[in-house]
Description:
- It contains five helices and six strands.
- By secondary structure, the protein is of the alpha+beta class.
- A six-stranded mixed sheet has the order 1-2-3-4-6-5.
- The longest helix has 15 residues, at 74-88.
Amino acid sequence: MFDAVRKGKSEYTEAQREAWVPEIRSGEMWANRLAAQDLFVAEDEKQIVGFMSLADEGYVDFAYIRPAEQGSGLFRQLYESLEKHAISVGLQRLWVHASLMAQPAFSAMGFEILEEQRVEIGDQTLRRFALEKCL
């Protein structure tokens, strides 16, 4: 997540990216948040290269791909696994708050924009999109 936000191509300023992800996330609170969700993870020989998570009520909480893997089709692979799982557990809708960089990828997967939003993080304002897809 840190690498995707802080080291990848971005339409956000450095100050906005630092407010969004000030440091590598770790610790009990982070572990508990992830443990409460269904995770879809891609790894290479050395590290995790991307992940997505599905939270309650069909919310796609996290969707991050390391910069070196962006554009490789990994987003699609992870998303297809997530969607297949969502259908298998009876979800009828997926929804997400997507960054300016993630919105095109979600739209390519069939999500429709519900609205553009602005979210305050510290002293920064970031644009994002609320999207949904009916399954």
